[in-house]
Write the structure tokens for this entry.
Amino acid sequence: MGGCAGGGVTRKQYEAIIGNVPRALDGRPRTREQLADRLAELAGPEVREAVLFSWGGVLKQSARFGDLCFGPPRGRNVTFVRPDRWLRRPLRADPDGAGREFVRRVLAVYGPVSAVDFGHWIKQPAKAKALLRASAEELTEVEVDGRSAWALTSDLPVLAGIRRPRGVRLLPAFDQWVTGPKPREAFVSPERVPLVFGQQGQVSPVLLVDGRAAGIWSHERRGDAIRVEVEPFDALSPKVRKALSDEVERLAAFLGGSPELSLAT
């Protein structure tokens, strides 16, 4: 368990944190630092660094157990609350029913999806097949680009009429179109994946052309100008360049500046 929270936390410390989160939280929102201070009082000062770890660390497990969730933000700081105290009612859920509802919601947004990709999506590959089996009566096996996948049976009429999107769009960093679907290769070529999905969870802004990643981009304000620099993966056709210029104009108008487009080579 060492290092699981980014601070070299031991298994004993990890279990102490998980066990004390329900005691540390009440109906009042606590910032991460306030929660860390309280857990340090309950579980020992050595756990404080692990709780403050910026990517969540052991707190993610407390959220999975239902002992912790986000509360209202306090300025630029997130806060945490204990759900049952915050809502002032006990939280009860049927695990089997919750699992089926989870599958239903994921496939409604990101389906069709293969069992392997579903496992990657929920970060629990071993549990994915069991969840899909439990929802079998609501699912239909389909084929997408030669790969077997599962879709909600109720969605089949809609899916049958969907075509690949057309047009040019500048998607922001961490856009749901980019971060949600699996496999990633469905919209970005394998050799370009590291350019879109960088180190430490970074997801770049993406130039989308007809539903596929065609480059990455950035922008900055220079006086009254909004300068957009695009790094295309391949040469852009005149038609795409014109559509990209129009997209930059829309972005600049939204940000309240005049457009400037730069294409990196």
The longest strand covers residues 212-222. The radius of gyration is 23 Å. Residues 11-87 form a domain with the Arc Repressor Mutant, subunit A fold (CATH 1.10.10). The chain has three domains: 11-87, 95-160, 168-263.
